[in-house]
Specification:
By secondary structure, the chain is of the alpha+beta class. Helix content is about 35%, strand content about 15%. The strands form nine sheets. The chain has a five-stranded mixed β-sheet with strand order 9-1-13-21-22. It has a five-stranded mixed β-sheet with strand order 3-4-5-6-7, covered by helices on one side.
């Protein structure tokens, strides 16, 4: 049975409870608090997203990519003259002094350079930041020692030069700054002039704001700001430069957040990493690293007290206090900072006086970029662009260590600039293939086309060493030839597509039987083509490929005279095995690339491959030295280079292209001269290319060695022969020559042209026969 609800008695009236609405001010307060919290949270999230990558060390946009030269390593025996060392020190902004040198200075004594070497970072070369005594005699380093302790040094290293900077589309020059990079004096100068209570406030300094307001009121103009360093950091990183109340509120909130989130040292590092110090033309100088280098050519830890004071003073108005444009204003502003540092107890009275008396010390040469390496830098940019995205190498920042030697590059540029026709030069380290100098044309401003690496032209007779090198090897059904092998220097008609071809000598005269050595030295075309017909184009192509020629080579007899086009870079690199002991090298310009954190992105991994045995190397070098001693390159004697240089001239049809590829124990270099549009200029390798090569090599300290710099290996034998027959010279031979042979290829039979014994001796003594006259060389 369902229970009934009890009825309410009529005598007990119902109570009606009426809810009162909340006061309006409470709703407004709650809403405002909510909006405030949401705004503060959004600002905190925004700041965290923007600043976290910086604190984690990740790259941020607009870091600078810096391209550096190779460091210069000096060891006992290194070829270098006193003049060259002095010039290298000048390029690096070393200052000559009479007192014991500080870092970045040097002193000359009667027998040595005392150089206080700078520290630097390189992935493969250790710096030697010591005062080194470098003694140079007869064009070589005689000894190295520590200047203070007279202890022998194994090596002294000159730091790399800055070649170029890529600042990205925003044109900002900036290098990441670590907390350990900031000198204490920079922190003191900054705090003294910008934020005295930096280490005690929490992002906002009410006392500083009140003080600034009072001073501005008294002077009836804005003379001082009340923003803390943390507020300035918030403005620099996250906000627009507009002047508004809302921006100041945001700035204050972000500053408080930053102070709660990060340490004072991190805030200070971020500030000095992102603050603007001025302009270098269209490029902004941002951060302490770049400011120290731009104004003083120093790293941050090398900055002195007055230099730190100058940089701290710049922050109020980088343009107004620019020491290059307004030295008096800059000096006055620096004095204000030094006074503030003294007031805060950072400097003693003596330190204050010395800092005020110090000159500004800005180094105008510190922000001048040399322009003689433009073609090389374009070559490096092409290499980077092929391996990295534009963002990676143009804005995110890289350090690229190259192989360039600035001293050699400068001399190469001068040599090419004096050429009558267009010209290009490339110089390699024969041991590694490292590009030490690259000039792609006389004037980069007029033509950025790189004739050293991008152009392909007919090398003419500069290709002949690959023909003769192939002949010194044995082949199918033929024995290896020797320098004494007789070739046929006679005209012969060869069938080619479309008719016949008769190779002609440059002099239009022919020798008949001629030793292989003389045929190469005198660049005899007929003898060379007849030799190519005997060994076959296939053997020549295989030999050229082994040494480094990559361009297409047509398997015709015209190949022997350089009819197939090649680049100057590849043919110069292909000569390197003759100079380095038989190792193939790949020419390269980038030694290593690092990101902004110092991690190695890439490095050149050398993989030398033996392509010539010691006997082949020695024979080819001696044959190419013959070209210099008696052949088409004998004019090198005018530059004093005849004894220790080897090489080959080259001329294409009608004198359109002139070449000289040559080497010394120190360097292998190639020169091309001609016209961009093939034109009959009537020039030759000896007249147009060789003088450029000679000026370059001679100016850079050419061979100064005494004696034979290419020692004869045990696998090479000598024999006295009659060059007219190639046989062992007998008593009746009027012409004799001591010739070299690979072991096992030396002649074993006597000369068949002349009698032996006493009768041969008598015939030689009383014969009226004269040696055949030699024709003119080209």
């Amino acid at each position: 049975m369902a229970r009934r609800k009890p009825r309410r008695s009529k005598s007990s009236p119902r109570r009606s409870i009426k809810k009162r609405p909340a006061p309006r001010w409470l709703w407004a307060f709650a809403s405002g608090l909510g909006f405030f919290a949401a705004g503060a949270l959004s600002l905190a999230i925004y700041a965290e997203k923007r600043i976290a990558p910086l604190l984690d060390g990740a790259s941020r946009p607009h870091y600078t990519t810096r391209v550096l030269s190779s460091p210069v390593r000096l060891r006992p025996g290194t070829p270098i003259s006193a003049k060259e060392l002095k010039h290298r020190l000048k390029r690096l902004n070393y200052k000559r002094v009479e007192a014991p040198p500080n870092e970045g200075e040097y002193r000359r004594t009667s027998d040595a350079f005392i150089v206080n070497l700078r520290d630097f970072d390189h992935p493969f070369v250790r710096s030697t930041p010591n005062a080194a005594a470098i003694e140079i005699h007869h064009g070589r380093v005689q000894s190295l020692r520590l200047a203070d302790e007279n202890i022998p040094l194994i090596e002294a290293v000159l730091e790399p030069e800055l070649l170029y900077e890529l600042s990205g589309s925003n044109r900002v020059r900036r290098t990441p700054l670590a907390a350990g990079d900031i000198p204490a004096t920079m922190t003191q100068a900054l705090i003294a002039i910008e934020d005295r209570r930096f280490f005690s406030h929490s992002g906002i300094d009410p006392r500083g704001i009140a003080r600034a307001a009072w001073r501005n009121l008294r002077s009836h103009r804005i003379t001082e700001g009340g923003s803390t360093l943390t507020q300035q950091l918030a403005k620099n990183l996250f906000l627009t430069p507009e002047r508004s109340f809302s921006r100041k509120i945001k700035e204050a909130f972000i500053a408080v957040y930053l102070e709660a989130r990060y340490s004072k040292s991190e805030i200070l590092r971020l500030y000095l990493d992102s603050v603007y110090f001025g302009q270098k033309g269209p490029v902004s100088i941002v951060g302490l690293h770049e400011a120290a280098r731009h104004f003083f050519a120093l790293t941050p830890h090398e900055l002195s007290v007055p230099q730190c004071a100058l940089l701290a003073g710049l922050l109020r108005s980088p343009s107004g206090y620019n020491p290059f444009r307004h030295p008096k204003r800059a000096h006055k502003r620096r004095s204000e900072v030094i006074t503030a540092m003294h007031r805060e107890g950072f400097l003693s009275p003596t330190q204050t006086r010395l800092a005020r008396e110090a000159p500004l010390g800005v180094t105008r040469s510190a922000h001048i970029t040399p322009r003689d390496a433009d073609h090389f830098l374009a070559y490096i940019q092409r290499a980077l662009a092929s391996r990295y995205s534009d963002e990676a190498w143009m804005t995110r920042g890289m350090t690229v260590h190259t192989t360039l030697d600035p001293w050699l590059q400068e001399q190469a540029s001068k040599a090419v600039a004096g050429a009558k026709h267009e010209a290009a030069l490339i110089a390699l380290d024969p041991r590694t293939g490292a590009i030490r100098a690259l000039v792609g044309g006389r004037k980069f401003a007029e033509s950025a086309f790189d004739r050293a690496t991008q152009a392909r032209r007919q090398p003419g007779s500069a290709f002949k060493p690959f023909v003769y090198g192939a002949a010194l090897r044995s082949g199918p059904n033929r024995a290896a030839m020797t320098p004494a092998t007789l070739l046929s220097d006679t005209t012969r008609a060869y069938r080619i597509a479309g008719g016949t071809w008769v190779p002609r000598n440059y002099s239009r005269s022919y020798q008949g039987p001629v030793p292989l050595r003389e045929a190469l030295a005198r660049s005899l075309n007929a003898a060379t083509v007849n030799l190519a017909a005997e060994i076959g184009p296939k053997a020549i192509i295989e030999y050229a490929r082994e040494l480094g020629i990559r361009s297409p080579l047509r398997p015709t007899l015209g190949l022997a005279l350089g009819a197939s086009e090649v680049s100057l870079l590849e043919i110069t690199g292909a000569y390197a095995p003759f100079a380095n002991g038989g190792y193939r090298v790949e020419p390269f310009g980038v030694e290593a690339a690092l990101d902004t954190r110092g991690s190695v992105l890439e490095f050149h991994h050398r993989q030398p491959r033996v392509v010539l045995n010691p006997a082949e190397v020695y024979l080819m070098t001696d044959l190419l030295r013959e070209v210099v001693r008696t052949g088409t390159a004998r004019s090198l004697a005018r530059w004093g280079l005849a004894q220790n240089a080897a090489g080959k001239t080259g001329t294409s049809n009608d004198g359109k292209d002139a070449w000289f590829i040559g080497y010394t124990p120190r360097i292998v270099a190639g020169v091309w001269s001609g016209s961009d549009i093939p034109t009959a200029l009537g020039i030759t390798g000896a007249s147009a290319a060789l003088p450029i090569w000679a000026k370059f090599v001679k100016t850079t300290g050419g061979p100064a060695s005494q004696g034979d710099v290419w020692p004869k290996p045990e696998s090479v034998r000598t024999a006295t022969i009659d060059p007219n027959s190639g046989g062992i010279a007998s008593a009746g031979c009027r012409e004799r020559r001591t010739e070299i042979f690979a072991a096992g290829t030396e002649p074993t039979t006597p000369c068949p042209l002349h009698s032996r014994g006493p009768w041969g001796w008598l015939k030689r003594m009383f014969s009226s026969e004269k040696p055949a006259p030699k024709n003119s060389y080209r």
